[in-house]
Structures are given as structure tokens and as C-alpha cells.
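Long-time lurker, first post. I've been practising inverse folding by hand and with some scripts of my own, and I keep getting stuck on stretches where the C-alpha cells seem ambiguous. Below is the full C-alpha cell string for one chain I'm working on. Before anyone asks, I'm not after the true native sequence, just a reasonable design that respects the backbone. If someone could post their per-position residues I'd love to compare against what I wrote down in my notebook.
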């Protein structure tokens, strides 16, 4: 199914609900960070220890390696089905790289535009200090870049395995929340970043699907299906 709309009512609903949750989280920013700052709970320490799971290079490097490896392989040695599998892996690797890289670049622009002070400046400025067009780590809290990456990865996995959508959403939000445990971000930074990465991944997949590349649109469904794989019912 080519053509069709890139944006859907389901996407609008997801974004509106996500922004509402981010707004609700903003009301707790000061309390949550204040609690984390004084907590000695082992679980919070463990969450902070795994926060680097949100670094984009964990996903960009393998995606690029697979894309290049398959791209430079000798496809003439594979039969028809083999070439179809190679094409699917090649396309999905390229999509995965773009789905993580594009929102990752955009979120860094947003960080500069908003210039929100990170929790490291909590004592000086509180939880709601913004200094637009500021550069540097200390004023790059909103949105969370790690959470944007995690949201994009969760979106990729949802597109590949739509029946596990809620599992990937729950695990992704947990991994993103480790940014709060590490005192790198506020809850609203995390919620907004996760939503941004997730939305970008889905929109990119739908954009490609409207052109018959890598994905195909499914009637009445927000998630397009992977070309070469049976459509989900």
C-alpha cells in the first residue's frame, strides 16, 4: 500500500497523551530530584549504573556495521530468497541508523533552544530554570538525549514486533528513567525525550512506507509492516 498519510490520528493521540504525561511529570520534577539527591537506596544506585544503555553509539555502530557489511557482500552468490533476506536486513539496518541518528541530531538543537539547567544546578537555580540559546552540558537538560535514543530504539522494536509494543514501551521508559537516577535529567526531560524519539522513529517508518521503501502501510494501523514479512493481523 503506497501513498497514504504519514501522520495519523493515532499519532496525534499518542503525542497529546505523551505531552500530557510529560506535563504531569514536570509538576514532580523538583520533588523527584530532591528525593534522588538524598536517597541511598541501592536500587537507585543500580539504575544510575546502567544509564549508559541510552548512549546512541550502542545502536548506531552495530546498525552501520550491518548496513555496510551487507551492502558490500556479494549478493550474486545468493538465490532469490537469499537476496530478498539481504535486502530486508540492508534496509532495516539503514532505517535503524537513521531512526536513531535523526532525532539524536534534532534533540541537540532543541537542547540549545531551551537551555534548561540540569539537576547539577538544582541548588543554584531550582528545577525550572531555562536559559535559551545556552551551550554546554549544564544547560542541556531538556529534552533528554539518552531518552530520545531509547525512545527511538523502542519504536524500532515496536515496528519489528508490534505484538510486544507495551513490553518495549515499559522497558524503554524504565531505561530512560535511569537518567533521573543518575541526576542527569528531570522526569519531564525524560518523558519528552522518549516521546520525541519514539515519534520520530514511527514517522520515519511511515514516510518510507508511503514510498514503498523498507516498510508498507497497513490499513487502519499506525505501525507500517516490514516489507518481506507477512502483515500482522
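-- Answer (accepted) --
I ran through it position by position. Result:
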Amino acid at each position: 500500500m503506497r501513498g497514504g498519510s504519514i501522520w495519523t490520528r493515532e499519532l496525534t493521540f499518542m503525542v497529546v497523551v505523551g505531552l500530557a504525561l510529560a506535563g504531569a511529570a514536570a509538576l514532580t520534577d523538583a520533588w523527584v530530584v530532591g528525593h534522588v539527591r538524598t536517597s541511598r537506596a541501592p536500587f537507585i544506585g543500580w539504575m544510575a549504573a546502567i544509564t549508559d544503555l541510552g548512549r546512541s553509539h550502542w545502536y548506531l555502530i552495530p546498525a552501520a556495521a550491518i548496513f555496510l557489511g551487507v551492502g558490500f557482500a556479494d549478493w550474486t552468490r545468493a538465490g532469490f530468497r537469499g537476496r530478498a533476506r539481504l535486502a530486508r536486513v540492508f534496509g532495516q539496518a539503514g532505517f535503524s541508523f537513521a531512526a536513531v541518528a535523526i532525532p539524536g541530531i534534532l534533540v541537540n538543537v532543541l537542547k540549545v533552544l531551551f537551555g534548561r539547567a540540569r539537576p547539577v544546578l538544582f541548588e543554584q537555580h531550582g528545577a525550572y530554570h531555562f536559559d535559551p540559546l545556552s551551550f554546554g552540558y549544564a544547560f542541556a537538560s531538556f529534552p533528554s538525549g539518552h531518552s530520545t535514543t531509547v525512545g527511538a530504539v523502542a519504536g524500532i522494536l515496536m515496528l519489528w514486533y508490534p505484538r510486544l509494543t507495551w513490553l518495549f514501551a515499559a522497558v524503554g521508559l524504565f531505561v530512560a528513567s535511569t537518567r533521573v537516577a543518575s541526576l542527569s535529567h528531570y522526569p519531564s526531560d525524560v518523558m519528552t525525550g522518549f516521546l520525541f524519539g519514539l515519534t520520530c522513529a514511527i514517522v520515519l517508518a511511515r514516510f518510507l512506507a508511503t514510498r514503498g521503501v523498507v516498510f508498507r502501510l497497513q490499513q487502519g494501523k499506525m505501525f507500517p509492516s516490514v516489507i518481506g514479512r507477512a502483515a500482522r493481523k
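A couple of notes from the structure itself: The mean pLDDT is 95. The beta strands are 215-216, 225-226. Happy to go over any region you disagree with.
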